[in-house]
Design brief:
The complex is a heterodimer of chains A (403) and B (154). Chain A is mainly β. Helices cover 10% and strands 53% of the residues of chain A. In chain B, strands 2-6-1-5-3-4 form a 6-stranded mixed sheet, with helices on both faces. Classes of the chains: A mainly beta (403), B alpha/beta (154).
């Protein structure tokens, strides 16, 4: 009900707006967006709320932000956010970001509060559909279901932008703080799956307690002297632990403590813009240590990358495509996994080719159509593995209204 | 049938005419591009010249202070050929990319977007009334209530 009222409010405001200009209420700038999607995919590979081949409308986001410039140096703001992904999100309103920003100099500023993490080129704008060509971003680097853990950090940040003369311009960010994941959100669901497939007999696991450790998130961006070329490095370290129950067949209900320590993400990014063409590529290598009172600690690692291109064909139409891969560098084709578990090798990797069209028929409105051809089933829950097929598809469409 | 010498003269003349036409056309294009917008600022702004790098940094929010330390308030046009030419020549972005850039700043809370105007005359009035303000307008819209700032390559 609250969401329906918000939707009508946003539509009414958007129709009254000529462009992405803000609505101003007593010196407070207000912006917002509503995105509603529809996903349908292969029956066997039920990726991202696509509901077993029947299609699903459980794919939306709502955002409403308020920002006020207090002095030339200080501004404060916050964004309310809700999303639905079927099994998590469920349109529960949360604070997406909310902080005070004091800008001492162009090369030095500080922020305190809940701040978006600079993960890759597009991590901080992942919630905002209007800022990209694609409906579903590459699910390797920008995996949707752990958004509650890595999208923002509550703590402090130093940032700045430094002119480098003939060498271009550099921008840095360093955040330290924590996160507050909950047992009903995407991270807990992903971990249920990870722990389930790592325990003997692949039991169903349910996490009932989740706590976060200190998060360190940083980035260094270089806008090079080559016109349109920017390079970025991102580094993120976090850790979580908690308690879970498993209905292992060996022991019907086992309680155990668990931990995911030193979860470290390193991302190298490149983006090149030439007139209406934007090319991007990112490569990530990550690792973490799993600990559990049921098993000995184990190290996991993975590598993932994508390349993408988007081109604005006319003022109102944009086309894009990407290819992305995830793999375990020690078991790239899943053969070792298959030999040790008996499960299909394609559970161990993920490859996705996507093509998208974006229409902007009028200001403040975007319509998207997108198709995916997927090989491998690694992004699925472990419980889906026995029936997951090697090849699958996903079709996505989405409407976004913003102001 | 032309004598050989006459034919050569004719060829050379044709080449010269085409070359001149091209240069006149190109010159017209460059002049039109350069004259299509003018960078204006509040009269109290001390700077008379800015480099393209500085202007780009100002309109992308990466340079927020004048040399004397006072605050810069950049303002933009919403549409029109002066807007497109300025973005293309100085900011090196298309209008869609410029809008995307500022939407990114707004929807992550990093910064407020520059105030934008549909009407160039309103933009000139705003710049004239706000200390530290800088904007761009079609050349015919500027007047003596604001100062003009020239843009240098380096």
């Amino acid at each position: 009900m609250k969401i329906s009222v918000a939707l009508l409010f946003l539509i009414a405001i958007s129709i009254g707006c000529r462009s992405a200009s803000a609505v101003e209420l007593g010196g407070v700038e207000v912006h917002g967006f509503v995105s509603q999607g529809f996903l349908v995919g292969s029956k066997e590979n039920n990726a991202i709320s696509s509901d077993s081949g029947k299609g699903s409308f459980h794919y939306n986001e709502f955002g409403l932000n308020f920002t006020k410039q207090i002095t030339d140096e200080l501004h404060i703001g916050m964004q309310l956010f809700a999303q639905d992904r079927g099994s998590y999100g469920k349109d529960k309103i949360t604070i997406d970001w909310g902080f005070a920003d004091y800008h001492f100099k162009d090369w030095l500023g500080i922020r305190a509060g809940k701040i978006k993490n600079p993960i890759g080129l597009y991590g901080e704008t992942l919630d905002v559909d209007l800022l990209r060509t694609f409906v579903v971003m590459p699910q390797t680097i920008y995996y949707d279901d752990m958004r509650d853990t890595y999208i923002a950090t509550t703590g402090g940040e130093v940032y700045g932008s430094v002119p480098l003369g003939n060498a271009g311009n550099a921008a840095y960010r360093f955040l330290i703080g924590t996160v507050s994941p909950t047992t009903d959100d995407g991270t807990a669901m992903r971990l249920n799956s990870i722990f389930g497939r790592s325990l003997p007999g692949n039991p169903v696991v349910k996490i009932d307690e989740i706590n976060a450790k200190t998060v360190y998130s940083s980035s260094l961006e270089w806008n090079t002297p080559v016109q349109g070329l920017r390079l970025q490095g991102s580094y993120y370290v976090a850790g979580i632990d908690g308690h879970a129950d498993s209905n292992s067949s060996a022991s019907p209900l086992q309680s155990f403590t668990w931990g995911l320590h030193d979860y470290t993400r390193r991302i190298a990014s490149i983006e090149y813009t030439w007139q209406d063409l934007v090319l991007a590529g990112e490569y990530e290598w990550f690792d973490y240590t799993s600990v559990s009172s049921l098993s000995t600690p184990s190290k996991s690692k993975g590598e993932q990358w994508y390349v993408s291109a988007s081109y604005r064909l006319t003022d109102k139409i944009e086309a894009g495509a990407y290819y992305t891969e995830y793999f375990d560098p020690d078991d790239r084709d899943g053969s070792l996994y298959h030999a040790s578990t008996g499960l299909p090798a394609h559970n161990k990797y993920f490859k996705d080719t996507a093509m998208a069209l974006k229409f902007d028929p009028v200001n403040n409105l975007a319509l998207k159509l997108e198709g995916h051809l997927i090989t491998g089933s690694n992004i699925l829950d472990a419980q889906n593995y026995p029936t997951a097929s090697k090849n699958s598809f996903l079709f996505a469409t989405k409407v976004t209204i913003s102001f | 049938m032309f004598p050989k010498r006459l034919s050569t003269v004719f060829k050379h003349t044709t080449v010269h005419v085409l070359l001149c036409a091209f240069l006149v056309f190109a010159g017209t294009c460059i002049a039109a591009s350069a004259a299509e917008y003018v960078l204006i600022a509040h009269k109290a702004v001390a700077e008379n010249h800015l480099t393209k790098v500085d202007v780009k940094a100002i309109f992308l929010g990466n340079k927020t202070r004048w040399e004397n330390g006072s605050s810069i308030k950049s303002v933009t046009l919403e549409d029109g050929s002066a807007h497109k030419t300025f973005l293309h020549d100085v900011i090196k972005k298309t209008p869609a990319q410029f809008t995307y850039y500022w939407n990114k700043m707004v929807f992550t809370g990093k910064s407020l977007a520059p105030k934008s105007f549909i009407d160039a005359e309103l933009l000139v009035k705003y710049v004239a009334s706000q200390k530290g303000a800088i904007g761009y307008v079609p050349a015919e819209n500027t007047d003596d209530t604001v100062k003009t700032i020239s843009i240098r390559e380096e």
